[in-house]
Amino acid sequence: MIVSAARLAANLHDVREKLARAAERGGRAPEAVRLVAVTKTVGLEEVRALHDLGVTDFGENRVAAGQEKLAALADPAVRWHLIGHLQRNKAAKAVAGFALLHGVESSGLIEALARRAGERPDPLPVLLEINISGEDSKYGAPPEEAAALARQVLAAANLRLEGLMTMAPLDAAGEAARPVFRALRELRDRLQDELGVPLPELSMGMSQDFEVAAEEGATLVRVGSALFAAAQA
Ligand SMILES: *Cc1c(COP(=O)(O)O)cnc(C)c1O
Question: Which residues are near ligand 1 (CB < 6 Å)?
């Protein structure tokens, strides 16, 4: 383990407390925000320790690493999230095992996923990744393309559109990320009206800004480093 079991438990408790208080500040129930523990920098030992502490949602940004971990942790109550950018040639592999794909951002990728998702017993849940801040180093579709991409997902019988995901710019920690999160929520609200479908999930917020994200309506926060820090922040 890269941190002691006691430290991991304390970090998790701290993140959950902060998350619950932030949800309440945003006028939301604490259960409305789910913690996705991002385990890309740690191994199975940490995953098992978090699972023992009651964590049921885990995130990985690589298909192969995620599948190794999900195969090792045999608990049907656990949901694995593929949170990272997904290459089209990995689409076939990504449809197996993951409960939700957060990084769907292009027409070509949607097409590739739709072609392979029939191999699953149930439709594959996806989020569209939107690049709100327009940073060109980042992945994600521009907001103007969101409606067309959403329509493409809705037209694919074996895909299920659950909402939107974004990443705030890395230099916009905490409060500075608020306009990005707010814009994603407003885009989601407009798309729901325009398309006439519910888009319940908003995946936004990481270690540096998950409290602001929870205040602004996040339903999924993706937190890694705050859980594995050697000392409490
Ligand atoms: C790594 C990663 C996270 C978690 O980041 P931390 O700063 O460690 O909390 C969240 N989302 C994505 C897409 C990531 O790749």
Answer: 38, 40, 61, 83-84, 167, 206-208, 222-226
DSSP 123: P
Stretch 148-177: mean pLDDT: 93
Q: Which atom of ligand 1 is nearest to the CA of 225?
A: 8
How close is the Cα of 193 to the center of ligand 1, in Å? 30
Q: What is the pLDDT at residue 120?
A: 80
Question: Which value, in Å, is the radius of gyration of the alpha carbons in the chain?
Answer: 17
Among 2, 46, 61, name the best residue to mutate to test ligand 1's pocket (greatest count of ligand atoms within 8 A of Cβ): 61
CB 36 within 8 A of CB 214: no
Dihedral sign of CA atoms 103, 112, 121, 147 in order: positive
* pLDDT confidence bin for 117, thresholds 50/70/90: confident
CA–CA distances in Å: residue 92 to residues 7, 11, 112, 116, 132:
38, 36, 8, 6, 28
pLDDT score for 233: 57
| Average pLDDT of the residues in 184-201 | 98
The mean pLDDT of the chain is 93
How much distance in Å is there from the Cα of 140 to the middle of ligand 1? 15
Q: What are phi and psi of 159, to 5 degrees?
A: -115, 150
Residue 133 has phi, psi (to 5 degrees) of -80, -15
Ligand 1 atom nearest the C-alpha of 222 is 10
